[in-house]
Amino acid sequence: MEAEAAVDYLVDERSKAQFDIDAMKIIWAGGKHEFEVSDRMARLVASDPVFRKDNRAILDRKELFKNTLRKAAHAWKRIIELRLSEQEASKLRFFVDEPAYTDLHWGMFIPVIKGQGTEEQRKKWLPMAYRMQIIGCYAQTELGHGSNVQGLETTATFDPELDEFVIHSPTLTSSKWWPGGLGRASTHAVVFARLITDGKDHGINGFIVQLRSLDDHLPLPGIIIGDIGMKFGNGAYNTMDNGFLRFDHVRIPRDQMLMRVKQVTREGKVVQSDVPWQLLYGTMVYVRQTIVADASCALSRAVCIATRYSAVRRQFGSQNGHETQVIDYRTQQSRLFPLLASAYAFRFVGEWLKWLYMDVTQRLQARDFSTLPEAHACTAGLKSLTTSVTADAIEECRKLCGGHGYLCSSGLPELFAVYVPACTYEGDNIVLLLQVARFLMKTVSQLGSGERPVGTTTYLLRLEHLLQCPCDVQGAEDWLKPDVVVQLFEARSARMTVACAKSLSKFSKPEDGFMDLSADLVSVATAHCQLIVVSKFVEKLQQDIPGEGVKQQLEALCSIYALSLLKKHLGDFLSTSCITSKQASLANDVLRSLYSQVRPNAIALVDAFNYTDHFLGSVLGRYDGNVYPKLYEEALKDPLNESVVPDGYHEYLQPVLKQRLRTARL
Ligand SMILES: CCCCCCCC/C=C\CCCC(=O)SCCNC(=O)CCNC(=O)[C@H](O)C(C)(C)COP(=O)(O)OP(=O)(O)OC[C@H]1O[C@@H](n2cnc3c(N)ncnc32)[C@H](O)[C@@H]1OP(=O)(O)O
Ligand SMILES: Cc1cc2nc3c(=O)[nH]c(=O)nc-3n(C[C@H](O)[C@H](O)[C@H](O)COP(=O)(O)OP(=O)(O)OC[C@H]3O[C@@H](n4cnc5c(N)ncnc54)[C@H](O)[C@@H]3O)c2cc1C
């Protein structure tokens, strides 16, 4: 009886939607074709028993890893059998939803050769990598240095006699430590090392190094290699073989140095090509951009679970003869709906960032390097902002699901454990925000010299206006005007940037100022990145948005995104005199009415993500809302429930119980 009632809750919820959900699915997917590919790949994975994942939390590390190898091999078999395109294959791997060595092979090893190899090197290595005849990883981080890439210690010393490089780990701290896929699977790595010729250090560069034999997978001479051990969470990221690696004078031919940025001639002369040296960091720019796109996936997944469960779950009160659905509590809405809005916001900013990345790549090919600093600042900043918000949001969604959110069968603990390292890998989020701050300070300092800010910093051209313009909100409805909101976020970012720049100018050494003011600089960078997200959401809404009611829903979500940020960072907006307390109070009223507007559409808005139950991996987030019977089913599958009397009863429980009986008799 109760189970049927739970199913009814979601059917009823879906009937309340005020927009065309199929049209919204296409907007979310980024187009009709993208939707079709994504939908087909999700179903393909969900219907294949090899890709089951409900047992990850109870497998031990060895079983877990072997199972990941099995899944990756099966995925590859299906990709070949079905002749999947690159786009389809990457979607298939995405829906397999298990961190694996293939992520690094396709996501970093191939891109680093593409981006930093010469044409000849690409011709030699990429076909083998595309066919998976070799498996590669990205070995940059060391035991002693991750954030500080210039501090890496591994050396690549040129030996002109044999026309070879000698790769060596001179210290314990120079051991490579962390690279995914390195521990067990990879046959090759792109290793970042200090280039030494003729006793001179020329800074870091990438080198292709074979690690294991292609015949028996044994490490090659001079290579010490292994897995770095269990990581946070049970199943979670432990499917990945993050590894360590030491080199004892390992020799590689000269042509295995990636030579797009720097070349070493046969005589050992180092030649710097005309591309900026920062292209050595280019793979990180590429991956940061993919991480932003991925943030909306992880966030939407958590939000989908929490929203569906909030509609099924009832506590207290009275609503049509039942207790109240927890989604109807204002507190639940004020915690959940900003996260729903953020999922859509991150989706659109991710789309835009993909475009920006393609644009900068095309420019680089045409030898126009002018937009590289902006691309670096945007990818670094948005990677930082979106992953931090998403990690916190997954945890908030767990709490929004009450006690049941803490069960592995809710899907949320594993999602959190898998996701949270995104705040650290591919650049620690604070270190990356400091890069954005540095870029902003430089942009502001160059304004006087006639240098025109580009792209996302163009608003700084209107600095004089932004430093004194009042916020154009007289009545509550003004808060729904996109240009009013965008200008407000510009004013806040501009005022915080200028205030920090002024404080910095008081230091005789800029590095000292940067150290002392770093916490403020991080706030400045955050404000700038939030402005980017808000304005890209607004720009999206200026495009043609087909489908009945779709645009109205997105407008409401855009306003929720911006106004909930305003509420969260009220201190910034008030202390920079961007708004008055009266205007803040009006914004709060508007937020409440926006929550009421979204409420009947909430389930349809998460259905638009089009996630299968397999992908969600959550009893609480099931499409049919049939939560309670399925929680029982999952509980009964636990190994502890295999026998009625537990293992260990005779050894450890019975003696205790007997002793208690004896005590009672005394
Ligand atoms: C579909 C595919 C999906 C694939 C996804 C797979 C996911 C798998 C999961 C995990 C993978 C994780 C992999 C990793 O973690 S790899 C290791 C990542 N490591 C880092 O990110 C290190 C972070 N550190 C740095 O990037 C740098 O050290 C630094 C913090 C930027 C500092 O650099 P540096 O010491 O050189 O100092 P400066 O700050 O002075 O910078 C000098 C100038 O260079 C400019 N710069 C910096 N970075 C870049 C860049 N990336 N691009 C362009 N320009 C850059 C900087 O702005 C300075 O310029 P200026 O003009 O001011 O001199
Ligand atoms: C799951 C996972 C997968 C990974 N995969 C790979 C991979 O495939 N290949 C690879 O090469 N690496 C990989 N890494 C390594 C990763 O890139 C680094 O861990 C990351 O760049 C952070 O560097 P770190 O560990 O040196 O942190 P640290 O720099 O030691 O950070 C420690 C603390 O110091 C702070 N800090 C550091 N510098 C500054 C500063 N200048 N100002 C203010 N605060 C600062 C940080 O904010 C942080 O709070 C992976 C890491 C993880 C967790």
TrEMBL record:
Compartments in which it is found: Peroxisome
GO cellular component: peroxisome
Acyl-CoA oxidase C-alpha1 domain mapped to chain residues: 281-441
GO terms of biological process kind: fatty acid beta-oxidation using acyl-CoA oxidase; lipid homeostasis; long-chain fatty acid metabolic process
Annotated ranges, domain Acyl-CoA oxidase C-terminal: 482-658
Active site residues of this protein: 426 (proton acceptor)
Residues of the Acyl-coenzyme A oxidase N-terminal domain: 20-135
Protein name: Acyl-coenzyme A oxidase
Originating species: Nepenthes gracilis (Slender pitcher plant)
